[in-house]
Design brief:
The protein is α+β, with helices and mostly antiparallel strands. It has helices at about 5-25, 100-105, 110-125, 130-135, 135-150, 170-255, 260-275, 285-305, and strands at about 25-30, 30-40, 40-45, 50, 60-65, 70-80, 85-95, 155-165. A 3-stranded antiparallel β-sheet has the order 3-2-5. A 3-stranded antiparallel β-sheet has the order 6-7-8. Helix 3 packs across helix 5. The protein starts with a helix and ends with a helix.
């Protein structure tokens, strides 16, 4: 069965319409933005999903909105103290304006790489070698701020910059290693000396405290001995004082106990003479005592003869 020309024409038209509609269907991924151009001119931006554009009249360009990384290749940089070092870095950026990123720069990766290399040379060139080796965070922050400001016109935001390495020449590296070794040896010697000093101080303090305690003990012992001798002397003196008072009372009050008085006088004479005196001065009362002793002795002798 042959088809009529009209049927064939309808089929052709339907097929053309279907192909045309299918050609206009575009898929924009979740991490992308779609830029629609009409006759080569930017017309609009479309969100992720299934989108349709006019075939043969419009076309869509996709822009990746994810964070990207730019590897800055190694380069030689002369520091402020004329040392040649090899420096490289990585730059992390993210698109903020897909229109600017697509139309304001032809090759963003190349442009960002050259910009990073130039500014990295400037920053490291203003630093001494020691500063460059110990100030990576400062270099990262300075380079990030410069690149972020410069790439703003390209519709991107520099998230962070990381310096991967800063390598001095081999001879400088060897000298740094020797310096580091000498510094570590010096620290070890200082630490050992500090330990010896501390140990000597502790030993001296221990000896000092020991001697102080010993001296305090000796002083306490001397004090106690002195207190004992003082007590003994006071007791003896008090007893002798009481005896002298009794003798004095016996002399002046006519106490009929001449023996006791004589004994006290003799004890006193023993202390006065002490085996060294050549002359003794006796009180007047002593003659009376001796007379009384003679009379008593005579009485006892008469009793015995009777």
């Amino acid at each position: 069965m042959e088809m009529s020309p009209m049927a064939i024409l309808v089929i052709i038209v339907v097929a053309v319409v279907f192909i045309t509609v299918a050609a206009g269907l575009k898929i924009v991924s979740q991490y992308e933005k779609g830029l629609v151009e009409r006759f080569g001119k930017y017309d609009r931006m479309v969100e992720p999903g299934l989108r349709w554009i006019v075939p043969f009249i419009e076309r869509i360009k996709r822009v990746d909105m994810r964070e990207q990384v730019v590897d800055v290749p190694p380069q030689e940089v002369i520091t402020k103290d004329n040392v040649v070092v090899t420096v490289d870095a990585v730059v992390y950026y993210q698109a903020t304006d897909p229109v600017k990123l697509k139309y304001n720069v032809a090759n963003f990766i190349l442009a960002a790489t050259k910009l990073a290399q130039t500014n990295l040379r400037n920053i490291v060139g203003d630093l001494q070698l020691d500063e460059a080796l110990t100030s990576r965070d400062t270099i990262n922050e300075q380079l990030r701020a410069i690149l972020d400001e410069a790439t703003d016109v390209w519709g991107t935001r520099v998230v962070r910059v990381e310096i991967q390495r800063i390598d001095p020449p081999p001879d400088v590296t060897e000298a740094m290693h020797r310096q580091m070794k000498a510094e570590r040896v010096r620290r070890a010697v200082v630490t050992e000396a500090e330990g010896d000093k501390r140990s000597a101080i502790l030993r001296a303090e221990g000896v000092k405290e020991s001697r102080i305690l010993e001296a305090q003990g000796q002083a306490q012992a001397i004090k106690e001995v002195a207190e004992a001798e003082k007590f003994q002397k006071l007791t003896v003196a008090e007893g002798e004082g009481q005896a002298i008072e009794r003798v004095f009372s016996a002399i002046h009050t006519g106490d009929p106990s001449p023996d006791l008085i004589a004994i006290r006088y003799l004890d006193a004479l023993q202390g006065i003479a002490d085996g060294k005196a050549t002359k003794l001065f006796l009180p007047m009362e002593f003659s009376g005592i001796l007379g009384a002793l003679g009379a008593v002795k005579g009485v006892f002798e008469d009793d015995e003869s009777a």
